[in-house]
Amino acid sequence: MNKKQKIFAIFSLTLIGLTVVLYILFSKQTLCEKVEIEFVDTGNQNIIGKDDVNEIVFSEYKNLIGSPIDNVNLGLLERKIEHYPSIKNADVFKKINGVLGITVEQRKPILRVFSTSGKGFYIDEEGELMPISDKGAVRVLMSNGNINYNYKGGIVKVYSDTTVSETLKELYTLAKYISADEFLKAQTEQVYVTNKNEYELVPVVGNQIIMLGDMYDYEKKLHHLKQFYLQYLNRHSWKKYSYINLKYKGQIVCTKR
User: Fold this and answer.
1) CA separation for the pair 185, 175 (Å, rounded)
2) Superfamily of structural domain 34-106
3) Sheet strands side by side (includes 87-95)
4) Would the pTM of this model clear 0.90, i.e. be above it?
5) Which of 59, 94, 154, 257 is deepest in the core (most CB within 10 A)?
6) Sign of the alpha-carbon dihedral angle for 190, 191, 194, 198
7) What is the pLDDT of residue 21?
8) 10-residue block means of pLDDT along the chain (257 residues)?
9) How far apart, in whole angstroms, are the C-alpha atoms of residue 126 and residue 99?
10) At what angle do helices 218-231 and 166-180 cross, to 10 degrees?
11) Which long-range contacts (CB under 8 A, 24 or more apart) does 78-87 make?
């Protein structure tokens, strides 16, 4: 390498180093211009809105807009957003031109509970309680009757929270089973809890009451019910019976109108 080449190489390395230093210094002073929020996998049912997420962000960083974007602790903000009961996962990241990006995955409710005490609430597919949304009702299985639980918000897990009643745990188990079966999910509208803590199902089609009883052998009971619908009621009038009793082992006892 001759003298000119050495000088050129040194000059190039110096220029690259200066560029890197200037970039680092400049990027640290990049100001936040706006916050962009995107919801993923919503299934066309929004439980929360961008205003809810913005409220969490700006309660943590009141003067975010116009402040250096590097002041934002991305991991801390993600945890703050994920603490919201209706949010399953959040990703917070810096985009170019001073934009703070946030992607949000909502929880997916499978049961709406109307409690005898306190406000109603949802239970999601993972067994976590969720507040009712002011964005509109989500079309899921409903439950009412002898359900005494006062949900006050926050993170409550059905199977690990000691305040949750056995009835609520059983309702979640039942809703999870029904929601996993496309036929039963489409056919079942409501679960009613009687004063004896037994479960009655109200179908979408037909005007029958279906007595499931307690949760003993509930999977077999629901399997028999499904077969009864597919093999018998599809060939006969659904209005023929007013009451279908699944309580007795291996039997379906029907009451005619």
Assistant:
1) 9
2) membrane protein fhac (3.10.20.310)
3) 34-40, 99-106, 87-95
4) no
5) 94
6) positive
7) 52
8) 56 59 58 92 76 94 92 94 92 92 94 88 94 81 93 89 91 96 94 95 86 94 89 68 84 79
9) 33
10) 40
11) 80/56, 81/53, 81/56, 81/57, 83/155, 84/48, 84/52, 84/56, 85/128, 85/129, 85/130, 85/131, 85/153, 85/154, 85/155, 85/156, 86/47, 86/48, 86/130, 86/131, 86/133, 87/48
Residue type, 186: A
Structure tokens at 56: 């969490």
Whether 110 and 123 have beta carbons less than 8 Å apart is answered as yes
Q: Selecting from 3.40.50.11690, 3.30.450.40, 3.40.120.10, 3.40.50.300, what CATH number does the domain 109-256 have?
A: 3.40.50.11690
**CA–CA dist 206, 19 (Å, integer):** 74
Alpha helices in the chain (DSSP H): 3-28, 50-60, 74-82, 166-180, 182-187, 218-231
Side chain identity, residue 145:
G
**Per-residue pLDDT, 237:** 63
109-256 shares the fold of 34-106? no
Instruction: Output the pLDDT for position 254.
Output: 78
Backbone phi, then psi, for 92, in 5-degree steps?
-120, 130
Rounded Cα gap, residues 3 and 123, in angstroms: 75
Distance CA(165)–CA(159), nearest Å, equals 10
* E strands in 48-198: 87-95, 99-106, 109-113, 121-124, 129-131, 141-145, 188-193
Question: Residue 27 and residue 215: Cα distance in Å, rounded?
Answer: 60
Domain ranges of the chain: 34-106, 109-256
Rounded Cα distance, 208 and 205, in Å: 9
Report angle CA 164, 158, 145 to the nearest 5 degrees: 60
pLDDT at 179: 95
